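Private note to self, pasted from the team thread so I don't lose it. Backbone tokens:
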């Protein structure tokens, strides 16, 4: 895809300084720009690169003043960083705007879908599936029976949505993610053998949720596992049966959340955090990476450690952890003096 400086300026509501017909077909960092690429300058630390870059077009702030002559065409905007982000979003929409049904693929006779569907090769839509408008389902994706998917959703290659699950609008499910697998439910008998507890619930994912590659969200034993509006999940996260995650919470990679735990709104959870089951975590809680959460957490707490402590208490305690050998040596010396 090629765009002229004039076209880009129109998208960004900016002004062109230089050749309005110069074309670009790729994006680049300013220090790595080559002919035919588009870049931007937002951080003053990178200003020197504007005079050496080979990029054909650069987006700069309206008030930026040139100190030397350049060959690059400029597009001046109010905020170069925000404008470049807007352009990335536009570029992504154009790139992902595939249409049509590729073959071979399978669509059940009872499945329905709206306008603008893209269904990649080797994908599967089960019985009674209902899909909204402008949904993109990439090759090798699976959508089980009785699944509902809203408008403007994207299921990337290899994503799996098991039966009965409900997906809202504008949800992105990345490759290898699994929504609706059985929860980890087993009961032991007197011999220590395990019998499976049927997992008869589903998963409900509300609007504007992003689910990273390789993340798994288990269906509920009864009722629903619920991911609320605007939640952002990184890659390789495990969310167990009957968990509920509040609106606009963000969770980093390799975190595991055990069954029936409730997490509040606007929480930030770092990578490799372990959270036990059947607890409640309040709103706006921040949990540092590799922490272990084994108790209920009130609103606005900041935690670190395993088991997790208050963030400030943990940092104070860590000073003593590092000095523990010296402290022990001092105690031993005092003990000897006392007992002489």
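Design output:
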């Amino acid at each position: 895809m090629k765009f002229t400086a004039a076209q880009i300026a129109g998208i960004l509501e900016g002004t062109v300084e230089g050749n309005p017909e110069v074309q670009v077909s790729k994006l680049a960092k300013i220090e790595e720009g080559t002919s035919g690429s588009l870049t931007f300058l937002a951080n003053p630390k990178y200003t020197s690169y504007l005079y050496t870059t080979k990029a054909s077009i650069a987006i700069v702030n309206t008030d930026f003043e040139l100190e030397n002559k350049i060959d690059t065409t400029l597009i001046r905007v109010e905020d170069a960083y925000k404008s470049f982000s807007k352009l990335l979003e536009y570029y992504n929409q154009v790139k992902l705007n595939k249409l049509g049904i590729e073959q071979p693929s399978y669509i059940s006779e009872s499945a329905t879908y709206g306008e603008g569907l893209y269904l990649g090769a080797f994908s599967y839509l089960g019985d009674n599936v209902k899909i909204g408008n402008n949904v993109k389902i990439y090759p090798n994706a699976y959508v089980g029976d009785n699944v509902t998917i809203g408008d403007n959703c994207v299921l990337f290659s290899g994503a799996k949505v098991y039966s009965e699950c409900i997906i809202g609008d504008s949800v992105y499910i990345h490759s290898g993610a699994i929504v609706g697998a059985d929860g980890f439910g087993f009961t032991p008998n007197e011999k220590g053998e395990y019998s499976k507890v049927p997992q008869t619930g589903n998963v409900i994912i509300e609007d504007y949720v992003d689910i990273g590659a390789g993340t798994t969200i288990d269906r509920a034993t009864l009722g629903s596992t619920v991911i609320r509006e605007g939640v952002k999940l990184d890659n390789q996260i495990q969310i167990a049966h009957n968990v509920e995650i509040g609106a606009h919470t963000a969770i980093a990679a390799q975190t595991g959340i055990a069954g029936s735990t409730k997490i509040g709104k606007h929480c930030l959870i770092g990578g490799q955090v372990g959270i036990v089951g059947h607890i409640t975590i309040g709103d706006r809680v921040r949990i540092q990476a590799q922490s272990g959460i084994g108790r209920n957490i009130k609103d606005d707490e900041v935690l670190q450690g395993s088991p997790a402590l208050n963030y400030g208490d943990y940092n104070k305690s860590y000073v003593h952890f590092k000095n523990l050998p010296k402290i022990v040596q001092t105690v031993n010396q005092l003990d000897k003096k006392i007992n002489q």
